[in-house]
Protein: Septum formation initiator family protein
Amino acid sequence: MSKKVENIGNQYTSEKNRKKQRQQKKMRVVRRRVTVFGGILLAIIIILSIMLVVQKQSNDKAAVERKHKEEQFQKKQDEEIALKEELSNLNNKDYIEKVARDDYYLSNKGEVIFKLPNNDDDSKSKSSNDN
Structure:
């Protein structure tokens, strides 16, 4: 039984062979299409993933910068409140009089200011802090 197997050359077998070849050709085309569309889909997924990571980093950076700006804004608001308070004090006659008496040793008519030795030590420490 070592004879070679031969195809029968009738119409039925040749039609079956043609159908089989057409089917194989269709399968190759389908595989190519699936491969191309799968590659395109994979490329889109990779690009979107990269964009997502970059956007996340950008958002994190913007959040940190925003927090920093809010802190600066809060400091400026506190400074503005302090300056407005100082301005209102400078418009107050009693406050100006108190500052003039305490810092510049000014007096009203008929008043005498006495400088005590304990105050001299305080003024020396003030002048050394100013330098």
Notes: Confidence is low (pLDDT under 50) at residues 127-131.
